[in-house]
From TrEMBL, chain A:
Organism from which the protein derives: Actinomadura rubrobrunea
A single GO molecular function term of this UniProt record: acyltransferase activity, transferring groups other than amino-acyl groups
InterPro entries with a match to the protein in the record: Thiolase-like
Protein name: Lipid-transfer protein
Protein origin, superkingdom: Bacteria
From TrEMBL, chain B:
Keyword DNA-binding applies: yes
Name of the protein in its database record: DNA-binding protein
Organism superkingdom: Bacteria
InterPro entries the record matches: ChsH2_C, NA-bd_OB-fold, Thioester_dehydratase-like
Keywords attached to this entry: DNA-binding
GO terms, molecular function: DNA binding
Annotated organism of origin: Actinomadura rubrobrunea
Domain ChsH2 C-terminal OB-fold span(s) in chain numbering: 65-136, 213-277
UniProtKB/TrEMBL annotation, chain C:
InterPro entries tied to this protein: Thiolase (IPR002155), Thiolase-like (IPR016039), Thiolase_C_2 (IPR055140), Thiolase_N (IPR020616)
Organism in which the protein naturally occurs: Actinomadura rubrobrunea
Descriptive protein name: Acetyl-CoA acetyltransferase
Pfam families, sorted: Thiolase_C_1 (PF22691), Thiolase_N (PF00108)
Name of the encoding gene: atoB
Thiolase N-terminal domain location: 14-121
Annotated Thiolase C-terminal domain residues: 249-379
Domain of life assignment: Bacteria
Record GO terms (molecular function): acyltransferase activity, transferring groups other than amino-acyl groups
Length: 346, 309, 385
């Protein structure tokens, strides 16, 4: 079924670089409260969330998160162990069936309570990669090196991405406010600390609605004109790290063209450059006006926030066509592209 | 022999043995890191090769066939306390190993990893186990060029330790501050009016924030329970009774340990009271309550608590 | 529910305590390759892959869909990973079906798995933070008090759980993939085993298994071209409720009742006992059969144990439950729900082999998880709805 589906509301926490002493549920509950208040909805046709058990090192983190939703009477609900952008994808698919008109999507993560580099080492192939102890930052640096060599880009170009992202983040009340990059040493060469997304705690929620319901709930709905996601092979030696073929395919399927704004889930500065190339974004496109993940990276919500920020540009009238990108896995292994428009096709 | 030996037989420099063409070929190949067997007249492959077919006494053919190096254990013995002459100084197996492509088996040591002296054989050591030789780097043309056999890799051990610094959260911190003073606190939900203990700062049913504090009693009623007989290092010694206790003044049961009564005498509807540790041991932790034990009061009728299970 | 959707391929691994002969990818590929073969397809015919499993702590691989993406032929394709606790196998199938019903894809491969032998199920399910006490050891420790409450509420005699434990293991003897095969299983044998979590005995408990289950789901056009009969999806539903709140009925949870009502409505079912021919229901502890008989509306409240006692749920009864041997006979947790959904499909395709229920045309697949708070269900039928 083909229906017009839009992002009608977006809420997020003021992301925090340190543990503020709240549980995930306590962090999430005000965001859910805010989005219910903004839409005037207390019940949704479908609910879907994204989170990761390993962030707290206990199973079933999504079970207690349900307490924040008010799941009584019982609700139609699902959960992905992925960034909540994929929860939004699942909800978008569900709304296309035609029998429900609204969906609540949320994601949350407290990156501050564990060692993220060690945790995400355990996401790697358990036979050949994880036993080596190689961490995601080291792998990202490997990708950055390969990209610099292939594209003839300099480390200064990475620094420029970091500086622009941090400057934009300082204008965003929800992001961390980080200083301009200075003469800092390498974290893992060629990446320096400012090239790497800072750890943050945070949560975000989005409400999707279909057709006339969307028009009732929002003055200027951000219509999803296309959304798609694709995966790469896992092993870093089995693919061309310098290109994001899966992003290119997802963008083609989602009809990503003529966008004015792009919010990219680039957790390292070189990833923005690889993604710009895959998405065919030229200098006229405003990339990560929110500051992007380099200014706040509440894992498991970061991708959903990209969609929320892009939609917010439609809601406030600063753009008529925007692109949001979300990523998962090491070295941009999985990529999702969502195209939002101020005008519905139908 | 408990003391030093007083007699030694040792041929100076070791015996010099001629090996002949068949054994010699095997050891020469072994020195090169290969396992070979010899074909018999009726087509079978003998490993280690001999000049004759052990079944018929007929001479073997001159055809050598590369086999293995992987093989299958056909039988074994287990040495829990190795002797000085043994090839390994930790518990290991002797095994008959039939290399792939061979019709007979070779005897060799089988190293199964670290074991404490005197250990029982591991359960996975059995006929059919797949093994491969561990070659010595410096080989001289002897059966010891294979240091031992080892199981094929079927599993890798993946030790993982991730460290976290978890915070209890605002609601739990407040609840435990109460416990530190010997008080059990809950919140009343502004929508449904129910008292939630321990409080969470929100009502899971209504999805609204809660803040009105209510102190409840440390007495209550068992609504249902389990008798746990499965030991776990993180749990109390078995058998222990985990019970849902509806504290007087609360509308939500709390999972708690019930003790001070034989497990088979715990009942649904039984009245219980918290047993607190000595006040000087109190801290902001539920450990302040050792467990709940029976009160000398009549049981509550099931009808009155059935909606709380 | 959108476009028509059908199951055209089912693949299962043998379920065992330890599948030491395979890697994680090998286990998952074994089920997936069998599902593709059943569907007459190859990896390249698949549009998208939906993976489900229970907590990642079981194998210690964080979000393993990344590592498994190319192992499941998904390079350049969409991959999703669902996790809804014990109901995940069912939810995963529903998400995969949803992609077909929404008209997004034509052929979706869905796989659910668990390789519990890489750690220990009790450990992985009970890892708790520093603020909670370990009064619950494994799933049985959680469910035992609720079973006791059911026995008290319904007045069921103590041997009912034993009957289910025997019946499901007798069924397992007819299922080539089943883990627990206990020839000569009897009431005496079950009753002679110790109470692990009183009132749950050892043989009233599910095993801990390694295993995977896969299905190929297809839209109408692809289903018509499949080499074997399809199982058409007549309805799907999921429901969740919070785990602890004042007034929650944990014995007969409303989420389960609402979920069943929703899926029956979609399938046009008003009398499940009469209109459903066979049900594969998530029963990890034997007492959950009578409890779910009531929760799913096969009888009135307090009557479930009478239905079990009458033999109605046996393979030759009027409403066979868990003809495959059920979760009590095979339990790779993340896959257990999908096995229920897949076995329901096999029944209405007439491909269930020795445990086939004659003439089954409509079947229920059911899964639940968490503190009996997450439910997923589907109804499949041999006729296109």
């Amino acid at each position: 079924m083909n229906r017009d589906i839009a992002v009608v509301a977006f809420a997020q926490t003021r992301h925090s670089a340190q543990d503020d002493g709240l549980t995930e549920v306590e962090m999430l509950a005000p965001v859910i409260g805010e989005i219910k208040e903004r839409t005037g909805l207390t019940r949704f046709g479908f609910t879907c969330s994204g989170s990761c058990d390993y962030l707290a090192g206990t199973p079933f983190s999504f079970v207690s998160a349900l307490d924040a939703v008010g799941a009584w009477p019982p609700i139609s609900e699902s959960h992905v162990e992925m960034d909540a952008a994929w929860a939004l994808y699942e909800a978008w698919v569900r709304l296309r069936h035609g029998d429900v008109d609204t969906a609540l999507v949320y994601g949350f993560g407290k990156g501050s309570q564990g060692a993220l580099r060690e945790i995400f080492t355990q996401q790697l192939d358990p036979y050949y990669l994880a036993p080596l102890g190689v961490d995601p930052v080291s792998l990202a640096a490997l990708q950055a090196r390969a990209y610099l060599d292939r594209a003839g880009v300099k480390e200064d170009d990475l620094r420029a991405v970091a500086a622009r992202s941090r400057a934009a983040g300082r204008a965003n009340p929800y992001a961390l406010h980080l200083p301009d990059p200075d003469d800092e040493g390498y974290e893992v060469a060629p990446l320096r600390p400012s090239d790497i997304a800072p750890v943050a705690d945070g949560a975000a929620a989005i409400v999707l609605a279909a057709g006339d319901t969307a028009r009732e709930l929002c003055e200027r709905p951000a219509w999803i004109s296309g959304v798609d996601h694709r995966a790469e092979a896992h092993a870093p030696g089995a693919r061309d790290l310098t290109r994001s073929e899966s992003t290119r395919i997802a963008a083609r399927k989602a009809g990503a063209d003529r966008v004015e704004v792009a919010e990219l889930h680039a957790r390292y500065s070189h990833e923005e450059l690889i993604l710009r190339e895959a998405l065919g974004l030229d200098e006229s496109v405003s990339v990560n006006p929110s500051g992007g993940p380099l200014s706040a990276d509440p894992v498991m919500a970061t991708g959903l926030i990209r969609i929320g920020e892009a939609a917010a540009r439609i809601h406030d009238g600063t753009a008529t066509r925007a692109l949001a990108h979300a990523a998962s896995g090491p070295c941009l292994q999985q990529n999702l592209v969502c195209v939002l428009s101020g005008e519905s096709d139908g | 022999m408990s003391s030093e030996p007083n007699h030694v037989v040792e041929f100076p420099g070791g015996y010099t043995r001629s090996v002949g063409p068949v054994i010699g070929r095997f050891l020469t190949e072994l020195r090169d890191g290969r396992l070979v067997g010899v074909r018999t007249a009726d087509g079978r492959v003998l490993v280690p090769p001999t000049e004759y077919d052990p079944e018929t006494g007929e001479a073997v053919t001159g055809e050598f066939v590369e086999v293995g190096p992987a093989g299958t254990v056909t039988s074994w013995s287990w040495v829990p306390r190795p002797r000085p002459a043994h090839p390994l100084d930790r518990p290991f197996a002797w095994a008959l190993i039939r290399p792939d492509g061979a019709d007979t088996a070779l005897l060799h040591a089988l190293d199964l990893g670290e074991f404490e002296e005197g250990a029982d054989p591991p359960r996975y050591l059995k006929a059919g186990l797949r093994v491969r030789p561990k070659w010595r780097a410096e080989r001289t043309g002897g059966i010891g060029d294979i240091a031992c056999f080892r199981p094929e890799v079927t599993m890798i051990n993946a030790p993982t330790r991730l460290e976290y610094r978890l915070r209890g959260g605002r609601a739990l911190d407040r609840f435990l501050a109460g416990i530190a003073e010997g008080r059990i606190l809950g919140h009343r939900c502004p929508v449904c009016g129910q008292v939630i203990v321990p409080m969470k700062g929100l009502c899971p049913r209504d999805g609204v924030p809660t803040s009105e504090e209510v102190e409840v009693a440390d007495t209550g009623t068992v609504t249902t329970f389990a008798v746990n007989n499965l030991p776990d290092p993180r749990a109390p010694d078995v058998p222990f009774v985990s019970a849902y206790v509806l504290l007087d003044g609360a509308d939500l049961t709390m999972l708690a340990l019930v003790a001070g009564i034989p497990a088979d005498q715990v009942r649904i509807g039984m009245r219980v009271k918290a047993v607190w540790r000595p006040r000087e041991e109190w801290g902001p932790t539920l450990d302040n309550i050792k467990w709940f034990e029976p009160l000398d009061e009549p049981d509550v009728l099931f009808e009155r608590i059935k909606d709380y299970v | 529910m959108g476009e028509p959707c059908a199951v055209i391929g089912v693949g299962q691994t043998a379920y065992r305590t330890r599948r030491r002969d395979v890697s994680i990818a090998g286990l998952v590929r074994e089920a997936a390759a069998r599902a593709l073969e059943d569907a007459g397809l190859t990896w390249k015919d698949i549009d998208a892959v939906v993976i489900g499993k229970a907590p990642d702590l079981f194998e210690g691989v964080v979000m393993p869909e990344a590592y498994l993406a190319d192992a499941l032929g998904a390079r350049g394709k969409p991959v999703m990973r669902v996790h809804t606790a014990g109901s995940v196998g069912g939810s995963t199938a529903i998400v995969a079906a949803s992609l077909i019903q929404a008209g997004v894809h034509d052929r979706v491969l869905t796989v659910a798995w668990e390789k519990q032998s890489e750690s220990n199920a009790t450990w992985a399910l009970t890892v708790s933070g520093p603020f909670s006490t370990s009064l619950v050891v494994g799933a049985g420790g959680y469910f035992a008090p609720h079973i006791r409450a059911y026995m008290r509420r319904s007045g069921a005699p103590a041997h009912i759980g034993t009957l289910v434990a025997v019946k499901d293991r007798l069924n397992a003897l007819k299922n080539p993939y089943a883990h627990l095969k206990i020839p000569g299983i009897s009431r005496e044998m079950v009753e002679s085993t110790p109470m692990l979590w009183e009132p749950i005995r050892y043989l009233e408990t599910c095993p801990s298994s390694d295993g995977a289950c896969a299905m190929v789901l297809a839209g109408e056009r692809a289903a018509r071209r499949a080499p074997h009969p399809p199982a058409w999806v007549h309805g799907t539903a999921m429901r969740s409720e919070p785990i602890f709140f004042a007034g929650r009925d944990a014995v007969n949870p409303r989420a389960g009742r609402d979920c069943a009502a929703d899926v029956y409505r979609q399938a046009g079912i008003t009398d499940p006992r009469r209109e459903i021919d066979v049900a594969e229901v998530y029963v990890p502890f034997s007492w959950y059969e009578p409890m779910w008989l009531e929760n799913l509306g096969f009888c009135g409240e307090g009557e479930g144990w009478k239905l079990t006692e009458s033999g109605a749920t046996a393979l030759d009864g009027d409403i066979p439950w868990n003809a495959s041997g059920g979760v009590l006979s095979s339990n790779p947790i993340g896959a257990s729900g999908m096995i229920r959904f897949a076995e329901a499909a096999l029944q209405v395709r007439g491909m269930a082999g020795e445990h086939q229920v004659d003439g089954a045309r409509r079947a229920l697949g059911h899964a639940y998880g968490g503190g009996a708070q997450f439910f997923s269900m589907w109804i499949v039928g041999s006729d296109k709805p």
